[in-house]
Specification:
Layout: H1 8-21, H2 29-35, E1 41-45, E2 48-51, E3 56-59, H3 62-65, H4 74-86, H5 99-111, E4 116-122, H6 125-142, E5 150-154, H7 163-168, H8 172-175, E6 185-188, H9 193-196, H10 209-216, E7 221-226, H11 242-253, E8 256-260, E9 284-287, E10 299-304, H12 305-314, H13 329-344, H14 347-368, E11 372-378, E12 381-386, H15 402-412, E13 415-416, E14 418-420, E15 427-430, H16 438-459
Helix pairs in contact: 4-13, 5-13, 14-16, 15-16
Pyridoxal-5'-phosphate (PLP) binds at residues 64, 124-126, 129, 158-160, 227, 231-232, 260, 262-263, 288.
């Protein structure tokens, strides 16, 4: 970190320029204009980042659930440097190809479950979801089923912010941010396992995926998309049997199942992919984030080779969809190195071990702190809720901003975590880099405990 005492002018300059010239994503414009940036980060090492004042934080959200291998990895930097010096960029349009993209597509086919052997590359999660929707609709059009356009997603889901991805997003804060949504996106109520299996006397049946398919007509539905575990919506883990019920339902109606693995993919849940926790193989997976550990942008749509074969047999037209950076050699080189590290350093089995540590410490938090409840953690994707009275399921008033107060208390003490306050719920998310060890987790949990003590005094 810079020595602030000798660089006060730089700090002042950065804050001023930030306020004047930088419109921040998913941030309050007013708070930014009033208070300036929340943090200016300068460097990171392992699970920790340092801000411009030299304060150190454990990154309990892996930045945006993506810096999975932690900060300061020279091997990832070197992979990028080497590729940039050799062939920084090359187009993949018109069947031009490059070594790194080819090797990465091959590697992904080895890692992905079932026949998910073909990758279409993008620059991130939203682009991946946007792409899967368009490619699937293109397919149905080629099959003479133009009317199969509708995409069913789940309430509380997060699929990104481009037009299609935000229309699929179930969190209405994101979905209704702008106007003129893409048509033909419908949200189902999450986790109605029995309804999806066909139990129709449930009051919520009409809001289930099955209910929507029956109402709209199966010949209008292109695909169902869901996160194996919902991330931004509050780390919502589906009940056992849910993913399988959705798989069976999609098979029954001949509808594609898309797993949005943007957070869950590449080890986050203690398996290579989130769906593997339930042994379900979707027709498509969308990935991003952890594929490069966030060191460089990259995403992909992973599909079955039978689907690609069918596209080839249906048309000799060009696939008129692609981004300049689809198959970016430098991004692909970093991804290859990331996947190599994941395997060579046995990161995924480490994540499984750390899951047990987090769950044990969550249990202690729950015992010590009256308001903590509903703790959950799969791999290193964890969260707990804060309720006014867990025994009667009574929530805090929205204006108390309970999860935000806890998260700020953590932040003050050197731990970055994410509050989720969607529709009156108060969840605090903990998803540190996959390389976090027992002592990092214990340190984070001690901070949680201190922040919760302060919170308890505030809400008394
Ligand atoms: N899908 C999921 C499950 C995500 O969590 C995110 C981002 O958080 C996205 C899609 C969008 O990805 P991106 O921000 O890279 O466009």
């Amino acid at each position: 970190a810079i020595n602030v005492k000798n660089n006060q002018n730089l700090v002042d300059q950065l804050i001023e320029w930030d306020q004047k010239h930088f419109l921040h994503p998913t941030s309050s414009v007013r708070a930014h204009q009033q208070n300036g940036p929340e943090h200016i980060f300068m460097e990171g090492n392992g699970v920790r980042v340092k801000d411009i004042y030299g304060n150190e934080y454990i990154d309990g959200l892996s930045a945006l659930w993506n810096v999975n291998l932690g900060y300061g990895r020279t091997d990832l930097g070197e992979a990028a440097k080497k590729q940039m010096e050799t062939l920084p960029f090359s187009s993949s349009f018109n069947n031009y190809s490059n070594e790194q993209a080819i090797k990465l597509a091959h590697k992904i086919s080895k890692l992905a479950p079932g026949d998910l052997n073909v990758s279409f590359f993008t620059s991130g999660g939203s682009e991946s979801n946007e792409s899967v929707f368009k490619i699937i609709r293109h397919y149905w059009k080629l099959k003479g089923q133009e009317k199969r356009t509708k995409i069913i997603s789940l309430g509380r889901a997060y699929h990104g912010v481009t037009m299609g991805a935000s229309s699929a997003t179930g969190m209405d804060t994101f979905r209704t941010f702008s106007t003129a949504h893409s048509p033909d996106f419908i949200q189902a109520m999450p986790y109605l396992t029995d309804c999806e299996k066909g139990k129709k006397n449930d009051l919520n049946f009409e809001h289930s995926i099955r209910g929507i398919i029956e109402r709209e007509g199966e010949d209008k539905i292109a695909a169902v998309i869901l996160e194996p575990i919902q991330g931004a919506g509050g780390v919502n883990v589906p009940p056992g049997g849910y993913l399988q019920a959705v798989r069976d339902l999609c098979n029954e109606y001949g509808i594609f199942m898309i797993a949005d693995e943007v957070i869950c993919g590449f080890g986050r849940t203690g398996k290579m992919f989130g769906v593997e926790n339930w042994n379900v193989v979707p027709d498509f997976m969308t990935v991003a984030k952890g594929i490069t550990s966030g060191y460089i942008p990259l995403g992909a749509v992973i599909m079955k080779d039978s689907f690609r074969d069918e596209l080839a047999s249906l048309t000799d037209n060009i696939l008129f969809h692609g981004f300049t950076y689809s198959g970016h050699p430098t991004s692909c080189a970093v991804a290859l190195k990331t996947l190599e590290v994941l395997e060579n350093e046995n990161i995924i089995s480490h994540v499984k071990d750390m899951e047990a540590v987090v769950l044990e410490r969550f249990e202690t938090l729950k015992n010590r702190h009256f308001n903590v409840t509903n703790d959950r953690c799969v791999g290193l994707l964890g969260a707990f809720d804060v309720l006014k009275d867990p025994s009667s399921n009574t929530r805090f008033a929205p204006e108390q901003n309970a999860a935000m107060v806890v998260a700020r208390g953590c932040n003050k003490r050197g731990l970055i975590v994410r509050p989720v306050m969607y529709k009156g719920a108060n969840s605090v998310v903990f998803a540190p880099p996959l390389v976090a060890n027992k002592s990092d987790i214990n340190e984070a949990m001690n901070i949680f405990s201190e922040a919760l003590k302060e919170f308890e005094k505030k809400v008394k």
